[in-house]
Amino acid sequence: MIRAGLAGIGVAVAAAPLGCFVVWRRMAYFGDATAHAAILGVALSLAFSMSIFIGTMVVALLMALTVSVLSGRGYAMDTLLGVLAHSALAFGLVAVSFISGVRIDLMAYLFGDILAVSRVDLVVIWGGAALVVALISWRWSALLTSTMNEDLAHASGIDPKREQLVLTLALAITVAFAIKVVGVLLIAAMLIIPAAAARPLSKTPEGMAFVAGIIGALSAVIGLRAAYVFDTPAGPSIVCVAAFTFLATSVFKGFRSSV
Amino acid sequence: MSLVQVEDISVRYGARTALSRVSLSIEPSEIVTIVGPNGSGKTSLLRAIIGAIKPFQGRVVQASSLKIGYVPQKLHIDETLPITVSRFLKLTGGIIAADINYALTQAGVPELEKAQLSQLSGGQFQRVLLARALIAKPDLLLLDEATQGLDQRGSASFYQRIETVRQDTGCAVLMISHELHVVMSASDRVICLNGHVCCEGTPAVVASAPEYRELFGTGTGGALALYRHEHDHSHQHGDHAHDHNEIAN
Predict the structure, then answer these.
(1) Per residue in A2-52, pLDDT tens?
(2) Closest Cα of chain B to A73: distance in Å?
(3) Residue A245 sits in which domain range?
(4) What average pLDDT does the segment A141-148 reach?
């Protein structure tokens, strides 16, 4: 139970700053596509019996890069992402069914299996989270500038394409270590919901990332507790708590702006 | 030595040619304005200078350690992004509180430091963008229709501010404007662009050039009259611009 809590907090900590950028840059679908591709990574990892962490990260990264490249060429992005996200998921599920001899709990990859987190998993999660947070803090100002306006970034000597690549890499790493905790279907939720819930409470970008981290961590802890009490699945319970927080802060905002 | 030297550049988007064989250079402390009809490649030229687009041929040479302050045509701040004016200005890096106050004062909006960027009016926003461009003490200020969305008084005072900034800091200014009357009275040099450089020179020379008249018609006679009027009387005060604007229209 403590391990599960620590795993959830680890995911929340990395997802918070990354999720803010996903929200600010309107990349929600992008996060979805990357996460859904991870199930294909799971299938490939099992087929070639290699580390699931590496397999999902590579496939997620390939997916994210494909989307980034295509997005620069003026395709209708929402349609394209819809196609890519769901076909990646479908191909992944089909590929998993081909793997015989291994008994796989598909549900564990779709919705996460946070209660089965091992010590090694915990090290991977916290290592990955530390890497993502370090990467984003290092590029913070440049990322923020290129998020606001690409030409402004160019004029200050920042290459927005390189910053986009940093985000893409961070996203792939997050997907790879969060799969165990919330599963491919709910990773995007852990990115977006805490960030969106933090928005009404923040005045600066840093403040929003920080508050999103707190909300995400609290959702993980409370969600786990609720899952234990009500005997509900852990990953979805965490997301439900985050969603309630979003509702609460939105109402708070509406209340504040009406008085 | 020129701050920026644009050498024979062409810019293409797919099959469409936006700029063909454009050359120009910007000298320290001069105010140069680019005029031209819609789609004449004005913004492409600025974007090539800051390095946001790669020319298909030719090259852009920047003086070593050139600092550019850029004011984009429009900047959309996503509502999901909370950011104060002072945090926005600090994004440039190595900025202290005194710099922020100084840049906002120069841009004429010292009171906005704590305001949220998303709450600003159009005019306030443009001035904050100007402050953002000025804060790194640039050698060259690039303005892409920076007064879009401002009323005539707002844009007149904006350009006065630019002139003051040039006097105070000695930075060169390269700007795009479609407000011909402003261009004619405030620039040292005008470049008339229509995919290529049609004509170039002092405002008086450009205004009387046949290429320019062909592009802008006779409606610009007033602008020229304004220019002559101001300069014949050797007025240096910007406040006369208001009266002249009326004549120009």
Answers:
(1) 888 999 999 999 999 999 999 998 888 888 888 888 888 888 888 888 888
(2) 11
(3) 2-250
(4) 91
* Residue A162, pLDDT above cutoff 60: yes
CB of A145 within 8 Å of a chain B CB? The answer is yes
- What is the Cα gyration radius of chain A? 18
- pLDDT band, very low/low/confident/very high, at A102 (cuts 50, 70, 90): low
Indicate the pTM of the whole model.
0.82
For residue A63, give the nearest of A86, A82, A35 by alpha carbon. Answer: A35
CB of A23 within 8 Å of any CB in chain B? Answer: yes
For residue B15, give every residue at least 6 positions away whose Cβ sits within 8 Å of its Cβ, in sequence order, or none: none
Q: Which of A21, A150, A151 to mutate to test the interface with B (most CBs of B within 10 A)?
A: A151
Residue A256 domain-assigned (yes or no) = no
Chain B contact set for A196 (CB, 8 A): 80
Number of domains in chain A: 1
Give every CB contact of residue B221 below 8 A, 6+ residues apart in sequence: none
**Distance (Å) from the C-alpha of residue B175 to the closest C-alpha of chain A?**
15
Residue A155 contacts B, CB cutoff 8 Å: yes
* ipTM summary value: 0.79
CATH number at residue A156: 1.10.3470.10
What residues of A are in contact with residue B68 (Cβ under 8 Å)? 155
Angle, vertex CA A212, rays to CA B129 and CA A79, nearest 5: 75
Alpha helices, DSSP H only, in A183-233?
187-198, 205-230
Q: Give the separation between CA A215 and CA A234, rounded to whole angstroms.
A: 17
- Give the pLDDT of residue A215: 96
* CATH code of the domain made up of B4-66+140-146+171-248: 3.40.50.300
H helices then E strands: how many in chain A? 12, 0
Per-domain residue ranges for chain B? 4-66+140-146+171-248, 68-137
